[in-house]
Automatic annotation (TrEMBL), chain A:
Keywords: Cell membrane, Membrane, Transmembrane, Transmembrane helix, Transport. It is found in: Cell membrane. It comes from the Bacteria. Coiled coil: none annotated. Belongs to the binding-protein-dependent transport system permease family. FecCD subfamily. It comes from Larsenimonas suaedae. CDD domains: TM_ABC_iron-siderophores_like. The lineage of its organism: Bacteria, Pseudomonadati, Pseudomonadota, Gammaproteobacteria, Oceanospirillales. The chain crosses the membrane at residues 72-93, 100-119, 125-147, 154-176, 204-222, 289-311, 317-336. The keyword rRNA-binding does not apply. It is a multi-pass membrane protein. InterPro entries: ABC_BtuC-like (IPR037294), ABC_transptr_permease_BtuC (IPR000522). This is Iron ABC transporter permease.
TrEMBL record, chain B:
InterPro entries: AAA+_ATPase, ABC_transporter-like_ATP-bd, P-loop_NTPase. PANTHER family: ABC TRANSPORTER ATP-BINDING PROTEIN, HEMIN IMPORT ATP-BINDING PROTEIN HMUV. Pfam families: ABC_tran (PF00005). It comes from Larsenimonas suaedae. One of its GO terms (molecular function) is ATP binding. This is ABC transporter ATP-binding protein. Residues 3-235 form the ABC transporter domain. It comes from the Bacteria. SMART domains: AAA (SM00382). Keywords: ATP-binding, Nucleotide-binding. The keyword S-adenosyl-L-methionine does not apply. Transmembrane segments: none annotated.
Amino acid sequence: MFPSKSALTLWAVFLAAALLLCVNIVLAASIGEMRIPFMVTLQSIAHGLGVSDVSLDPIQQGIIWQYRMSRALIAAFSGAGLALCGVVLQALLRNALAEPYVLGVSAGASTGAVSVMLLGVGGGAIGVSAGAFLGALMAFAVVMFLASGVRRGVTRVILAGVAAAQLFNAITAWLVSTSANAEQSRSIMFWLLGSLGGVRWPDVELAAIVVSAGFVLCFYFARTMDAFAFGEDAAASLGVSVRGVRAVLLILTALITATLVSIVGAVGFVGLVIPHAARFLIGPGHVRLLPATALIGANFMVLSDIVSRVIVAQQTLPIGVVTALFGAPAFALILYRVRTEE
Amino acid sequence: MNIEGRELSWIRQHERIVDGVTLTVGPGETLGLIGPNGSGKSSLLHLLAGLRRPSSGRVYLDHEPIDGFSRRQVAQKVALVAQHSTTDADLRVEEVVRLGRIPHRGPLQGWTQSDVEHVEQALVQAGLVALRHRRWHTLSGGERQRTQLARAMAQQPGVLLLDEPTNHLDIQHQLDLLTRVRALATSNIIALHDLNLAAMFCDRLVVLSEGRLVAQGAPEDVLTPALIWRIYGVDAAVERSPHHGKAQIHYLV
């Protein structure tokens, strides 16, 4: 939509980001408690991809492929997915601070997931992901209800999000403290902070399908999101069916958020920071912004995962802690810039 | 293009904002919409743009009911310049004008020669060629309104609706904007506060009061001291200007 940067620069940025992502994923797979030679890491990945049949130590191969590789890919897909949700929400709500975590959607998804895990809501008919999806939709409903009635609701939406997050976090804490045993509550609290521990290939498949499909759908609406630059009426006068588009995209972000929350917990600030970084690099047009955001988000999350594993010796921090350490100052910075521009 | 509103009413929260307004604007004609604050000018424009569905009555574009067109088809025929446009996107003038091509492009369709030409033409019409790379946030109020005018022209509309486009502009930019609008081949409906500007730039005026159409016709027929007193409660004398021949209102306080 906005060819302000030359096409060549653009492809260079995309290519560099994609290459960097591959490097980071291999790096993430090579780092861990058990020292495994870098060559073995590469061979194990090649073996896992089915392009090599060198015989390897099955334990090392298993650690690289079953544990670390699945973990790195989950990090990449969740980074891409959360960043994508951030771009979409920022465009639709015309709010620089919008993202699933800030709006309380992640909290809603957590509540939904915990209800299924601890209370068996749905009697086994719905899985944790479906529970998270219902929770996320509920959180959206609460935010939209609280924020409605005011047309110029830029701060209002964020405040509504804070309220929703508090509400759903309280429900989750209540559920955990009344219905979980000590072991369960420990693992749930750890997961709530955002944790990549214990993810396996089926999780990767689920995340890959949801995030990729979500990306394709968002990309289809890229120009439509451009049309929202001057608000909903302006978008409508440019031929956008505002209600329909908004419903489709909000449900889509709820779905992506819920899927990722059910796998890695509520990881905050990725959706907030990455879109701003991407906009800074390649401009506001969504045709370019969406792929750039997804790539940068994936890189950011894989790197955050590496940091979370090496920053404290012999220990792995929840990844949400790392993203928050980067994200909270960035949130403050963006808030400050939004203020001065108003 | 011809645009017609027939018996338009719009009720919001049990309040009649627009009450049975019928008006029509022919090809190339400029209609001025005047009336006090809260008389329903903005709401009427939103109904005519198809952004709100009237509670009763209908809008017709070239005698076809507007409900028969998709949102996108309407956007190819009718463009709206709002009173005040804000964004937090870091857009350049040219990028804002390009938004006007959205109704003409498929979701994944590339940028065509025709798109380029219409954007260029719109930039020329709005006098923005030299400002095309400027950032929106650095523009003055007048430049922003001209950018929105150019965006609207890039839509290739047959009908242009402007909602108090000269609010907050200095007199130079008010005259500049309205002169540019007059130079277009579109059918225009402009909501205006300034009665002298309305008299100078409009072929016909429609006066709204409490959502109802209370007078319409040529500016010199509509803008009488009696009407100004009835609508605004202001004493005025009206004479034909010896300089431009249009009605000139003197307010008497």
